[in-house]
Specification:
five-stranded mixed sheet; Immunoglobulin-like; eight-stranded mixed sheet; alpha/beta; Aminopeptidase; binds zinc ion; 21 strands; 3 domains
Length: 487
C-alpha cells in the first residue's frame, strides 16, 4: 500500500515506444488535436476511429503496429492508444473518421482501489491464512525483475487429495488491464468464503480444483503504477514483450504480432522466451486444466481458439458452444439487451499469433477462453467505485459456468497398469454418432487421469500405451461419466 504515497504522479518519461513502428503514418490534420501537445511526454490519447470496413481496416491497424486498446465491432469503431509526442497520425482516406479523442495522463497512477503487485502478494497470503482447509498459494515462477508469480489453488483439502478436474483462471497478461485482477481475486475469495454456506460452491470445491493466477505480469503492473498507466507488456529486453504474443504455438505465424521491440504487440526474440510465458506453460502442463479463462480488457467479448485467420478447432460444438453460452450470461455495461459478443479473435477483431488460448488448446487439450471485460466507454481503468463491483459480480456467471460444465457431460477416468497409475498413455475419445469424427486426443496427466468434455452421446474411448490398447464404449448424458481403465 505504502508505495502509493510516493509522488510518482509527477514522473514523466520520454515516449518513444510507438513512434518508431508507425511506418504507414501519413499526417492527418483533420480535427486539430495534433497541435500544441507535442511537449507533453507523459500523456497519451485514446482515439476512437469509425471504420468503414471493420475487418480490413483492423488488419491494417494491426499490421501497422498500432496499439489497439479495444473495439466495438457492432458499431464498427476501434480505440487506438497514441502517444501525444509520437509522429503517429492517421490517413483519413484509409481509416475514416476520428469520432472521439480522450487525453490520458499516463504518469498518473490508476484509481487507487485497483491492486498493485505488492497488494496482490498480501491478499493471496491472507486468503491462504484465512482458509487453510481450502486455499493453497504457491509461487510458480519469477519475473525478469524478480517478482514472484502467484497461483492460488482453491479446493476442499478434506476430500479426494488428487485427481480432481481443474478449472484455471488467470488475469493481467497485459499490465494496464487492472480490472482483470479484481475478477480473479474475487473468484478466489467468493469460492473460499461461500464453501461453508452455499451447497453448489461446496460441491464444486469437493469435486474440483480451481487454480487462479491473479497477475501474470507483475513487472508490467509495477510500471503501470509507477510510470505509465497505459503500459501493456512486461519489462524484459529493451522495451518489454507482449506476453500474450509469446506462446510457442503458431508464434509469428499469421501476422498476429509484431517483430519490432517498440511495438505494443512485440512477440519477443523467440517463442516462449519470457519468464512469465515459461512459468504459465509449466503450470498449465502440470495442472492440466479442463477449462481456462484468461481475463483481459476491454471490449465485452468472449474469444475462443483458434486465432489465426480462417482456423477453427476440431471440437467446435464444445469449445464454441461454451463461449456462446458464456457470452449470453454477460450483459453489456451499457444496459438494455446488449450482451458480450462471442467468436474467434480473427472473426471478431483481428488475427493473433502466440496467444495463450491457442497454445493451451493445441498442446494440452484445455478448453480456453479470453474474456475482454468492460465496454469501450469504460476503457482499461474505469472508476473503481462505480465499476469494480458491477463487473466482478457479473463475471461470476461466466467462470461459474465453466466450473459447472467441467462437472457435467464428459468422460473422466484414471489409467492404471497393475494397479499403479501411469502418466504416459494416450486417450482418444471418438463420437459414435457423428460420422467420421476424428475424436479428441488426450495424453493422461501426471496423476494418470484424463478428462474429455463432450456433448451427450455415445463414444468410443481408446486408451493406448505403446503397443497396448484398450477400447471401451460409453454413453454420456448430462453428467460426468467415470471410466477407469486398466491397461
Ligand atoms: Zn489484454
Amino acid at each position: 500500500m505504502n508505495i502509493r504515497a510516493s509522488g510518482y504522479a509527477f514522473f514523466h518519461r520520454p515516449s518513444v515506444a510507438l513512434a518508431a513502428v508507425l511506418t504507414s503514418a501519413i499526417l492527418w490534420a483533420g480535427t486539430g488535436f495534433a497541435h500544441s501537445e507535442q511537449e507533453e511526454g507523459g500523456k497519451s490519447r485514446i482515439l476512437t476511429l469509425k471504420l468503414r470496413d471493420f475487418k480490413a481496416q483492423m488488419r491494417e491497424l494491426v499490421e501497422g503496429g498500432y496499439d489497439i486498446a479495444g473495439a466495438n465491432p457492432s458499431a464498427s469503431t476501434v480505440d487506438i492508444v497514441q502517444r501525444i509526442n509520437s509522429q503517429q497520425s492517421f490517413n483519413k482516406e484509409i481509416f475514416g473518421q476520428v469520432i472521439e479523442s480522450k487525453i490520458i495522463d499516463t504518469a498518473k497512477a490508476p484509481d487507487v482501489g485497483y491492486k498493485t503487485s505488492v497488494e496482490v502478494d498480501e491478499i493471496v497470503h491472507r486468503l491462504a491464512n484465512n482458509y487453510p482447509d481450502l486455499v493453497t498459494v504457491e509461487s510458480f515462477g519469477r519475473t525478469h525483475e524478480g517478482r514472484d508469480l502467484w497461483a492460488i489453488r482453491v479446493t476442499s483439502k478434506a476430500t479426494q487429495k488428487s485427481g480432481k478436474p481443474v478449472v484455471f483462471l488467470n488475469a493481467l497478461h497485459h499490465a494496464r488491464e487492472v480490472m482483470t485482477v479484481e475478477v480473479a481475486l474475487d473468484a478466489a475469495d467468493y469460492l473460499a468464503a461461500n464453501y461453508a454456506t452455499n451447497n453448489e460452491v461446496h460441491d464444486w470445491l469437493d469435486r474440483a480444483e480451481i487454480w487462479i493466477v491473479p497477475m501474470v505480469n507483475p513487472d508490467g503492473s509495477n510500471k503501470v503504477w509507477t510510470e505509465d498507466s497505459m503500459w501493456r507488456k512486461n519489462t524484459s529486453g529493451s522495451d518489454g514483450v507482449d506476453v500474450n504474443r509469446n506462446y510457442p504455438y503458431r508464434w509469428n505465424q499469421c501476422n498476429g504480432s509484431s517483430g519490432s521491440p517498440s511495438s505494443d504487440t512485440y512477440r519477443g526474440p523467440s517463442a516462449g522466451s519470457e519468464n512469465e510465458t515459461q512459468a504459465m506453460m509449466a503450470l498449465v502442463g502440470r495442472i492440466r486444466p479442463v477449462y481456462s479463462i484468461s481475463f483481459h480488457s476491454y471490449s465485452e467479448l468472449v474469444l475462443y481458439p483458434y486465432s489465426c485467420d480462417g482456423e477453427h478447432v476440431p471440437q467446435r460444438e464444445v469449445v464454441e458452444g461454451g463461449g456462446k453460452a458464456m457470452a449470453q450470461l454477460l450483459p453489456s455495461d451499457g444496459g438494455g439487451s446488449g450482451k458480450y459478443a462471442p467468436g474467434t479473435s480473427w472473426e471478431i477483431l483481428y488475427a493473433v499469433d502466440g496467444g495463450d488460448i491457442d497454445w493451451m488448446y493445441n498442446t494440452h487439450n484445455v478448453i480456453p477462453y479470453v474474456i475482454e471485460l468492460n465496454s469501450t466507454s469504460q476503457g482499461f481503468q474505469p472508476s473503481f467505485s462505480t465499476w469494480r463491483n458491477k463487473t466482478v459480480n457479473k463475471v461470476r456467471a461466466a467462470w461459474q459456468y465453466v466450473i459447472r460444465r467441467a462437472l457435467q457431460s464428459g468422460v473422466r477416468g484414471k489409467v492404471t497398469v497393475a494397479g499403479e497409475s501411469i502418466d504416459d498413455a494416450v486417450v482418444r475419445v471418438i463420437s459414435m454418432t457423428k460420422e467420421g469424427d476424428a475424436g479428441q486426443m488426450i495424453s493422461v496427466k501426471g496423476d494418470g487421469t484424463f478428462h474429455a468434455v463432450v456433448v451427450p452421446g455415445s463414444y468410443k474411448v481408446v486408451v493406448a500405451r505403446g503397443e497396448r490398447t484398450v477400447e471401451k464404449t460409453v454413453l454420456v448424458g448430462g453428467d460426468l461419466v467415470t471410466l477407469d481403465v486398466a491397461l
